From TrEMBL:
Residues of the Alanine dehydrogenase/pyridine nucleotide transhydrogenase NAD(H)-binding domain: 148-310
Membership in a protein family: Belongs to the AlaDH/PNT family.
Protein name per UniProt: proton-translocating NAD(P)(+) transhydrogenase
InterPro entries for this protein: Ala_DH/PNT_CS2, AlaDH/PNT_N, AlaDH/PNT_NAD(H)-bd, NAD(P)-bd_dom_sf
Chain's role: The transhydrogenation between NADH and NADP is coupled to respiration and ATP hydrolysis and functions as a proton pump across the membrane.
Pfam families for this protein: AlaDh_PNT_C, AlaDh_PNT_N
């Protein structure tokens, strides 16, 4: 079969779904690989490296779309390109199709077998394919660097002839994959770090990274290792305690999310108003509406001396390593589909059956 890698079309997207290294491994699975010229450019993988790895580098996206039995992408191609894919083509990437009618229709009308990797069940076996985790790691890391960059303070403690500087206090809200990487990164920069999450098991994880668990008296473990949404009473209690605590915090990184729902609103305008001037909020949940009421997605604003940043697609800012990890995740998933150069779907494998989109009818064979 032929596997195609197209240049990403989403604005600002620098990542690529296959690297020269993974192309070499795809070729070893017996596949022919076609890469659109410049597909790796945003992540500093030149065309020549793909060619050396055994890919054909082709200028024309259309030709690849029509040829390839499998298309690898970071974000879903736009609907017009999807319409031009081969009938029955396989599409693998972080596709975020839910709610996008034009793409959904294109996929249905072309009989495309889509595997949005964000739908993978988060089992141990799926970890090697888990793009949410690999990309969240980069996002959490970059979020702390942005906080440090925007802050008018040092993060580490300094003892100098001009006096002693106390370390910044950083609070990370949401200690999933991104939050734990944020905690580790802020610690490496020398800040005093606290972490908070509604899943009680995060206490140990935060402490193992040298952070302090901020106990706000709310615990809301949900299904599948994720958080559930809070009740109104729980949210009110969390907010009262948090508001008091934030007065002493220099930088906040928020990463809280509940699958399939808008980001929980955790930091209100009143809480921001209570923070010291020169404090910073970096809201990693900006893409899904923000954990902070004042976040403007894609912008950095200053409100009464408090800087609130809502960066988007932070993983793309670390495109080299983010692409290397994404491409390995994709390769590991494609290895379930392609053997000896042929595609076969083993629908008894839950990683395929639960990931495929549109969802398979439970009654179908
Ligand atoms: P996520 O992006 O859905 O959420 C980020 C964090 O926000 C979560 O830790 C969640 O508990 C927290 N959160 C939600 N509401 C909150 C609130 N009101 N206040 C504070 N925090 C709130 O989560 P994620 O990072 O993708 O992963 C969630 C968990 O799943 C992680 O702990 C991770 O270890 C686990 N996971 C397991 C596997 C596996 O192999 N089995 C793979 C990936 C992730």
């Amino acid at each position: 079969c032929t596997i195609g890698v197209l240049r990403e079309t989403a604005p600002g997207e620098r990542r690529v779904a296959a690297t020269p290294d993974t192309v070499r491994r795809l070729v070893a699975l017996g596949a022919r690989v076609q890469v659109q010229s410049g597909a790796g450019g945003g992540a500093h993988f030149p065309d020549a490296a793909y060619a050396d790895a055994g890919a054909s580098v082709i200028d024309d996206a259309e030709a690849i779309a029509q040829n390839a039995a499998v298309i690898l992408c970071v974000q879903a191609p736009d609907a017009s390109l999807l319409q031009r894919l081969r009938e029955g083509a396989v599409l693998v990437g972080h596709l975020a199709l839910g709610g996008d009618d034009a793409r959904g229709e294109a996929i249905a009308s072309r009989g495309i077998v889509a595997f949005p990797l964000e739908r993978l069940p988060r089992t141990t076996r799926a970890q090697a394919m888990d793009v949410l985790s690999s990309q969240a790691g980069m996002a959490g890391y970059k979020a702390v660097l942005i906080a440090a960059q925007l802050a008018p303070r040092f993060f580490p403690m300094l003892t100098t002839a001009a006096g002693t500087i106390r370390p910044s206090k950083v609070l990370v809200i949401g200690a999933g994959v991104a939050g734990l990487q944020a905690i580790a990164t802020a610690r490496r920069l020398g800040a005093q770090v606290e972490g908070f999450d509604v899943r009680p098991e995060t206490r140990e994880q935060i402490e193992s990274l040298g952070g302090r668990f901020l106990d706000l008296g709310v615990s809301a473990a949900g299904e599948g290792g994720y958080a559930r949404a809070l009740t109104d009473d729980e949210r009110a209690e969390q907010q009262r305690r948090l508001g008091e605590h934030l007065r002493g915090i220099d930088a906040i990184v928020t990463t809280a999310a509940v699958p399939g729902r808008p980001a929980p609103r955790i930091i209100t305008a009143a809480m921001v108003a209570g923070m010291r001037p020169g404090s910073v909020v970096v809201d990693l949940a900006a893409e899904t509406g923000g954990n902070c009421e004042l976040t403007r997605p894609g912008e950095t604003v200053e409100i009464d001396g408090v800087i609130v940043a809502g960066p988007l697609n932070l993983a793309s800012q670390g495109a080299v390593h983010a692409s290397e990890m994404f491409a390995r995740n994709v390769l590991n998933f494609v290895s379930l589909l392609v053997a000896d150069g042929r595609i076969a779907f083993d629908w008894n494998d839950e990683l395929l059956a639960k990931t495929v989109w549109p969802p398979r009818d439970a009654a179908s064979p």
